[in-house]
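Regression test attached.
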Amino acid sequence: MKGRVLVVDDDAALAEMLGIVLRGEGFEPTFVADGEKAMEVFRETKPDLVLLDLMLPGVDGIDVCRQIRSESGVPIVMLTAKSDTVDVVLGLESGADDYIVKPFQSKVLIARVRARLRRTDDPAPEMLSIGDVSIDVAGHSVRRAGEPLNLTPLEFDLLVALARKPRQVFTREVLLEQVWGYRHAADTRLVNVHVQRLRAKIEKDPERPEIVVTVRGVGYKAGPG
Amino acid sequence: MRGLLTRRNAQRRARSAVPDERQAAAAAPAAVVAAANGAGTASGAGTANDSPAGGIGTVSGSGTANGAGPGSGTGGRAALAHDQATGEAEEPRPAGRVAQIASLRDYLFRTARVVSARLRPALASAGTGMASALTRARARWRGSLQVRVVTATLVISALVAAVLGFFLTQQIADGLLQSKVKESASQTGLGIRLAEGQLGDSVSKPGSTTCQQIFNTQGALQPQTTNPDYLVAIRVVSPGKSTPPTFCGGAINGLSLGQVPPALMEAVEADQAKNASQLPYVSVTARFSGTGSPFSGTGPQRGLLFGAPLGSDLQLFYFFPLSAEQNTLKLVQGTVLLTGIALVFLLAGIASLVTRWVVQPVARASQGARRLSTGRLDERMQVKGTDELAALASSFNEMAASLQDKMQELQNLSQVQRQFVSDVSHELRTPLTTIRIAADLLYESRLQLDGSGRRSAELLQSQLERFESLLVDLLEISRYDANAATLDAEPVDICDLARNAADVAQQLAERRGAKIEFRLPSEPCVAEADRRRVERILRNLLVNAVEHGENKDAVVTVAADRDAVAVSVRDYGVGLAPGEDRLVFDRFWRADPARARTTGGTGLGLSIALEDARLHGGWLEAWGAPGQGSVFRLTLPRRAGCQLAGSPLALSPVEAVAAVTVTGQSYAGPGRDHQGARPGLHSDPRRSHEKGRFGG
């Protein structure tokens, strides 16, 4: 599986290093060092994945993330030097699917990138439903009461993972493994933020969720009760 | 007291003055007369001197007692009090006052006993309500300076007003009585001279006066108004006392002989026998039943009854009603009482107002200080005037301002430090990432390099890892130092965290041929905690336990009670020397500096773990003994931010064993520590299962 990766990073050395690693793994990297030019290049290259440094000159990485997300559901992986909750959650809330804290190993980077690009090539026709939400897994579409909903691939994967086993409670760790492809337990804030984002799109009242329900102290499950 | 003493003196003097042959009979009456006379009768003496019948007063043997001024007042009062409520002046006794006091005391004691006996059940039934009301009252008393001051003012001013009012009314009563006595004495003296003039020579010849003469004299002496202010009666004393002495024609103007106390009669007779007059008088309460008197139908009349010898067989009696004086006294008493009450409440009001003035700014200052302490640093007090309270306000404001400055300074400093940490973090991490990835690439292709190049790539890789973890730990510590660490608490099962945290240590232990044994309770131990931080603490403790465990097994025990959860990590390695249980948490502290650094610990792990535990409001403690291994115990409150009172697990194994032994004998134990130790130490089939799962 090959893919085009847009690297948005102002640090030339790191960008070059990332390029070496990505090319070594068979990806096609393009680079942009300036937040202001990021959208332009993004529209030109139509990448399959974006690697985005949060601290950029000009337009902030968070803003770039929002702009991309407003136009596309393309997977975004943030590169951040800050692991504080506020920074991470802010990045995730602005639309990033995953984040990697610097310094990271090349293996980790590749694993995350692959996990985000992993698409089952020909999924079997499968229809799922929770409440009034119906999911066409092969067609990659979700409808609530007939209305199509616009989910990012990650949100879609999260919903499908939950909906495939309705009423089963998933711990955050299990979801991290299934949806994000983490082998070892990682940051559960990823799950929390993305469940919030998913709820905002599919729930009638995100304050009182009925599709993706929190099981206090354990995790999440699909469906009421 | 003084009155009593004076009266007794008067009695003694009176007794010694009475002629011997009459002593027995006259002792008591004379005493009374003397007392009635006002013991000192400064007034009496004065009267006698002022009166036209100047000789009268001086001749007296019995009651002249010439006491001082103040004594006279009390004496007169004694007489007034003494005769109250009697139809006639009663037989006075010398010890009457003492007996009265004794009986009064008895009565009071009896009443108090009865009252307390009746109140006791009522008090018991209303006990709880009363007690709570009392508690509330006490709380108010203690809680408010104003209440205390006002209550104290009320009580003290009431006492002062009562004492002052009492003395004032007594003084006025004495004054009124004395002036009445003086006036009456002069009236009587005038009457005697007038009667002597009326009767002419017949006065000196016993038995020669006729009833008609006496009537005429009486008529002449009687005031000729419709509202007379005195009554006059003349009594004829039969020579030889063969017939009882009578008033001529019975009651005259309603004043009957029966109303004249025998004591007065005897005193007058004594004067008559000595041919002298000192104008004895008594205070009486007279009832005028007939119609012939101007005082008929007015009820009992208090008044002064004066007697004087008129010749050898006649006695002149004057009755001066005290109704006017009584009315005046009543008015005065009423006024004094009202004024007193008004004064007391006025004083209480003033005290309340004044305390308010003083207390209110103080209360405002304390309120301001409280607000200041809750972080509202803009709090200031109003400064009015230049008095002490204004000084308080301005110094409070100065304090607040300097506090605000300092806080601002600290905040700025903290902000600067936080920013610095953040900047360093970013600036260091980005190049480090490049180095890291480059090192990864070199390491992966190390087999294509020659020997020294290969070893260099390996060293670069391993030391980069160490450098990274050191950087991470340093940044974490600086975050704590800058107060920038935030708690991201959610309900988590500590048992899960313990298992998750064990993975690294497990691999390390396996390499050393050791195991990690888990002793977990069957039910989950959920607490509000920051998953990342707690896992970090546990990972640190476990790696430490394996590193210093000398290839022996480590034991992880989890227990919970209502308020807290605890994890203890036990190793059987070298242990800790005395005092080291605190040093282990110091930054970069190493038990033995000479010891080889076999593992890549940064030396900051336990310091960060301690900060992590503190951020939760939890405890991280160590126990160790040389050769016996060590125990690290983490205790976290079930709810984030709650205060910890104890831990469900014992810290030292000695304590734990002791606790099991004593609890076996149903001994309550000195603390929760000991009771809580049991779950971890009882054998439980489930634990062997856990051990099988995680310990292998």
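Expected vs. actual: identical. Chain A touches chain B through 31 residues (CB under 8 Å).
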